[in-house]
Amino acid sequence: MRFELFVAARYLRAKRRQAVVGVVTGISVAGVAAGVAALIIALAITNGMQRDLQDRLVDTSSHVQLMRVAGDGIRDWQPLIERLRHTPHVVAASAELNDPVMVAHGARPGFALLVGVLPDAEHSVSALLNNVPPDAIAALQPDAASSAPGNAAVPPIVLGKDLADSIGVVPGDSIKVVSPQGELTPIGVEPQYMPFRLVGTYHTGFYQYDFAWGYIRLADAQRLFDEPDLVSVISFKLDDLNRAAEVGRALERAAGKGFQATNWMEQNKELFRALRLERIVTFIVITLIVIVAALNILIALTMMVMEKTRDIAVLMSFGVAPGQVHRIFMLQGVLIGVAGTVLGVILGYIASWAGAHYRIPLSPDVYSIDTLPFAPRALDGVIVAAVSIGISLLATLYPSHTASRILPAEALRYE
Hints:
Helix content is 56%, strand content 21%. The longest helix is centred in the first third of the chain and has 42 residues, at 19-60. It is elongated and about 110 Å long. 37% of the residues are buried. The strands form three sheets. Strands 3-4-8-5-7-6 form a six-stranded mixed barrel, surrounded by four helices. It has a two-stranded antiparallel sheet with strand order 2-9. With 415 residues, it is an alpha+beta fold. A hairpin with a 2-residue loop joins strand 6 (174-185) and strand 7.
């Protein structure tokens, strides 16, 4: 192969009688590089989207949730939690009471999923409250008084920053919370409402939580929803989040009849399925750029065969076998593909690093996250390089086969 590689590299470096052949060769290298770089950047973005969404979903929510099938809430939940804590792979548990409500400040209303929590227990199963200021966490403690002087009777509330901005409140402002769980009167159901004082906001970068969630004390939630000593969900944190389905079934059996468990994978399976499909479609679509570049390789080699017909005939007359000629032009195409692939891999990883370093902002209400994530993987680079070189090799089959079938006598007859 040393002879064929030497001749192939020599042909690529040689001056052209027809300048267009060199131009097409340069375009082929640039096309392969552009396709490979675009594919690596696109895969880095889809990997980053999946990584960030999964990390934020796992960090801001529990691994497994247990609830009543009938949806009427869980009573006598304290002894149940103590019993379920001993389930294998469970490391923490917390009780929550949640319900959708309307929050309003003056004439600016908003809607939120209001969650009544015990902060210490909630910290053990979810990292969302890590984004809440310490003084706001202190105000949410069961035995804490209101942080505002003269407002000891007004319970505290914590909202996502986007939700607080949408209704125009800042810490210290009063908020009216209206619950659909009301009293039946002769004119219909009268909604239940309570005043709250905003003691803090949080920002996770995940729009669904920052715009639509709020936290209050569990006792205040039970009073607002008129459900004394009742919780709607028991949340669990596991030592291995990939065992969520298995542990969920074990919790159902341990809790007894009438309970149902769900986990973070089931709650977000449509999202992760869409991300996997997006990754496949992205790979296929951008691979078309490499295929177009490979067509340029085919054109360049075909024109080179036409230009080098006399040289090929001379080589064959000196005893070079048709198979060797075939390999010479195959190696030319592979060299073009390798040059473009190496250049594209370098450009793709540099661009991915720059995107991750300088943080490109996104609209969180559209994309759920506030910056464009990049997570380039070495395995993706290997796969993309192999596909690119493989496509380049396929593009060499026709021109190299044509070159190997040249008859020296016919090619030299009129020279």
